Amino acid sequence: MTDWPEVRLHVVTGKGGTGKSTVAAALALALATEGRNVLLCEVEGRQGIARMFDVEPLPFEERRLTTGLPAHGGKPGVVHALHVDPESALLEYLSLYYKLGRAGRALDKFGVIEFATTIAPGVRDVLLTGKVFEAVQRNSRNKGAIQYDAVVLDAPPTGRIVQFLNVSNELAGLAKVGPIKSQSDTMMTLFRSPRTAVHLVTVLEEMPVQETHDGIAELRAVDLPVGGVVVNLVRPQDLTPEQLTGTAPEQIAADLAGVGVDPEPDLVASLVTEGREHAERRALETSQRALVGELDVPTYELPRLPQGVDLGGLYELAAMLREQGLA
Amino acid sequence: MSQTTRFGPSGSPAPALDVDALLDDTGVGIIVCCGSGGVGKTTTSAALALRAAERGRKVVVLTIDPARRLAQAMGIEALDNTPRPVTDVDDAEGGHLDAMMLDMKRTFDEVVESQASPEKARLILENPFYIALSSSFAGTQEYMAMEKLGQIHADSVAPGGDGRYDLIVVDTPPSRSALDFLDAPERLSSFLDGRFIRLMLAPARGPAKLIGAGFGLITNAMTKILGAQVLRDLQTFVAAIDTVFGGFRARATKTYALLQADGTAFVVIAAPEPDALREAAYFVERLSADHMPLAGLVVNRAGKAPSGTLGADEAMAAAGRLRRDDPSSPTAGLLRLHADQVRLVEREQRLRHRFAAAHPQVATAVVPALASDVHDLDGLRRVGDLLSGG
Lengths: 327, 390
Known about the structure:
The complex is a heterodimer. Chain A has 14 helices and eight strands. Chain A is an alpha/beta fold.
């Protein structure tokens, strides 16, 4: 059973290098069950989705990406993907809401589009989040669009997430009235509602855990709903610290010989060292896990896959997320 | 650059990056550390700076966002835009180390204040567009890191300066893409020089009729979307910034030239992950296209190759056999860790060899992953030792 039954928009953030894009993709797969339609969005121009799923670079257009993770004995749903870039989002927004005609083209010609999307404060974020908003709460003018059961946003990193989602605040200093202002207010209503959850991805290291802690405080300060913390890249834990450091080399050599492995001294020494270093890293993880526990939000853990995350790995991670209740 | 003969993309490992030779080369006055986010740039640049200082260089490190405890250890908790001496640096070789955490907005404000009359500066500093531009524009941080680099270089390194430093180590902002660092100044100045700005300035400069019908069309459309007040703020901002703009552009050009000069060395930082190495490859190509001097690649957080000849599959098979007899066998657990480690190292090596095959000229230093975080000078010294192959 999912911990987040009401949530339609799952925002996934995290410090660089923690694997937030991987978690966002796995979450989309996990949500796409029983014929549900899920949209996975990226907004940072990285084409990370295309690389993870090994497809052609995505256009500004919703595309069927893959089949979701089926439930036990059930049928799967469908994951769609969308790569949101601010230029296309602005042009779509203009054509959807304003009949600008010749002026629209003139805007482009005079560099206004470029201005609005690269430098006009807050506008870039409003455009990106605006498109995501539209995917969650379909605009009646967008004829024939798919109604999604859930939208997963691979969002900017933790350090920028509040600025990114808190669009009306960012615009407040600029547009006190006018259509952009009311548009951003409507968006904030969704982002602050229980239909949105901002999940934070971390690894059990000092900096990322600290950033997660700060990120949660910042989100709460502006009433954005904090979802779960996904602890990623966790090291295997099938041995106790005593077993890791306390197993005698003689014992290891005897065990190896017993199953037909040559107990060469190099190998035995290597196993002892690996055990000790693993124990050291685990101890660090344990202290950081305690800090994550103090955050007082639901946490989910994903293991480090030694061969890296390929398509099969994404489905494995999706299954773990579903089992733990994030999806 | 060394001339090497290659026959197709062989898996030959890259030449080793001689970090100490780089740090000891008095011809090198600037080392720029760049790479995508989360690869250990800040730690690496601090470790390079400390090692250089303890080898006798007079060093300042410009850092962007160090871990809190590392910042404390270096004495730069306060973000005050002024280099502060780092204590407990071994000065036996006659070197010293200052550290500074960059305050992007403050740097930007200082530039404006130095370029405009007090009255005009106030107008700019209070404008909402300027406030947003100076604190949140993607690229401002990169631009300001370069601005500060140019300032310190002119004040303290270049001939005629006070000679306080002979080496500046720069940590670049945690960008989405490593390339942002090189592109941001150009983006900022091309924006300030763009058609849009010209358009906004037009009414202030001459009779509207010379601009033609286009202007009315644009302003009407923008008023409709943004509202009139936004447009007015924008025009004020543009008019004000235009007066300091000449200075911006000239300085950006000068700093860019400084980066291309022989006294600069770029060190590209990566982790042995596909995304980070892809970014590193883009960066290497871009540096060579822009004639920027590349010293080499640092691959952080590499897995340590286990000794012995037991492969991953054999280790897993042996672990399975042990568990049949004793499900809680510690040796089985250790074998599984060993298998994971072998696979990890194989995967990382494959990635690095692929990089080396495509960029055989790039000297590389591989730094093994540390078991714990770095938050003091001793930790930085250890990283420095590892960087130089110790």
